[in-house]
Amino acid sequence: MSSAPDGGPDKEPPGRERWAVDLAADVRKTRGEVHALRNTVVDLASTVSEWGPHLEDTQRDVAELRGQVDELLESPEIKNAPVDWFKLPAEDAEREWPKLAEFVHEVLGGWYEVTREQLPDCWALHRPAFLQVAWLRTSHIEAYLERSHPAQAAEFNVRWLDAALEKIKRAIPDSRCRALAGRPGEHLVDRLAAQQRRDPVSPPVPAATSASPYPNPYAQGGGQHPAQLAAQAQPAAGSAAGGDPTRAAGNEVIRWEYWGDYFHEAMRADLAWRREREAQQANAEQAADQGGEKAP
Fold first, then answer.
1. Using 50, 70 and 90 to split pLDDT, how confident is the model at 288?
2. For a disulfide at 187, which of 131, 227, 263, 267, Cβ 3.0-4.6 Å?
3. Position with higher pLDDT, 44 vs 216
4. What is the pLDDT of residues 244-260, one digit of tens each?
5. Section 42-54 average pLDDT
6. Which pLDDT value is given to residue 220?
7. Do residues 205 and 228 touch, judged by C-beta distance below 8 A?
8. Best CA proximity match to 168, nearest among 44, 260, 75, 254
9. Is residue 267 within 8 Å of residue 124, measured between CB atoms?
10. What is the 3-state secondary structure (H, E, C) of the chain?
11. What percent of the chain clears pLDDT 90, i.e. is strictly above it?
């Protein structure tokens, strides 16, 4: 037996025994780490099972989005580009006006049964209202494209249509324009009444706007205005009996024979204004070119 330096027995275990002690300590440590890892795996499995359905929905949405992106990459051309009415050339506007009329007649009138109160007969003569109708057409086309998500159609039906009609109502209050039973309604009633008071013999004509850098092309002073026809017609049935013919007419579904004349007037004025604008731009460019040639 070996001895310690002080002469007593040596208490340190031999080399093999010391190795066994260290190994046992390592095994105990590893066992604790394995137990902790097992608890972590159990917690992770519980979390995965809880979030599994959400992950499946996310993967499905990502796959659908990837398909839409691939389709857009394959067809870079936009199928329903919005009409830029602000800068539209006269030649293009001449093609777009009939499309807008077809949308109002077939979709807003034929399918949605929009009333004359919601969309007054003279809507085309009011630029803010005209723009709302134009954007409605763009939104409707976009909502029903083959690649469109069903939510876009829902958005149009429960949001955009009502919002646009509400803006039109604010742009054309009843005090200015109103429906008349059996014939086109009155446009700019306040101006018509004022002129009628001044000259009760002549049929009223809407007053033209003053000159401005950006004139309103829909204020026309010549020709027989549809409102003149309305003013010359006989009073609607029921007015003498104390009824409200204006409200009854406002509940009618929009019809081409009511708003068509106003539409044609607005279209003619708009195209004339655009052609005049293009002629002025061409003259200005020509003058600039001539000035550049004369410069040293």
1. confident
2. 227
3. 44
4. 666 789 999 999 999 99
5. 75
6. 43
7. yes
8. 254
9. yes
10. CCECCCCCECCCCCHHHHHHHHHHHHHHHHHHHHHHHHHHHHHHHHHHHHHHHHHHHHHHHHHHHHHHHHHHHHCCCCCCCCCCCCCCCHHHHHHHHHHHHHHHHHHHHCCCCCECCCCCCCHHHCHHHHHHHHHHHHHHHHHCCCCCCHHHHHHHHHHHHHHHHHHHHHHCCCCCCEEECCEEEECCHHHHHHHHHHCCCCCCCCCCCCCCCCCCCCCCCCCCCHHHHHHHCCCCCCCCCCCCHHHHHHCCECCHHHHHHHHHHHHHHHHHHHHHHHHHHHHHHHHHHHHHHHCC
11. 45
**Cα 262 to chain centroid, rounded:** 25
Per the listing, tokens 């009223």 go with 204
Tokens matching residue 123: 């809507």
Mean pLDDT along residues 39-49: 79
Determine the pLDDT at residue 246. 66
Q: Tell me what percent of the residues of the chain surpass a pLDDT of 70.
A: 71
Question: Could you give the C-alpha distances from 166 to 71, 161, 173, in angstroms and in order?
Answer: 36, 9, 11
CB atoms within 10 A of CB 270: 23
Q: Select from 160, 174, 161 the least CA-distant residue to 117.
A: 174
pLDDT for 135-164, tens place per residue? 999 999 999 998 889 999 999 999 999 999
Q: Is 159 left (phi over 0), alpha (psi -120 to 50) or beta?
A: alpha
Q: Residue 147 has what pLDDT? A: 83
CA 294 to chain centre: 49
Unique residue bearing structure tokens 């708003």: 259
Q: Name the nearest CA neighbour of 215 among 264, 269, 278, 170.
A: 269
Asked if 133 and 123 touch (Cβ cutoff 8 Å), the reply is yes
Greatest Cα pair distance, the chain, in angstroms, is 144
| Phi and psi at residue 40, to the nearest 5° | -65, -40
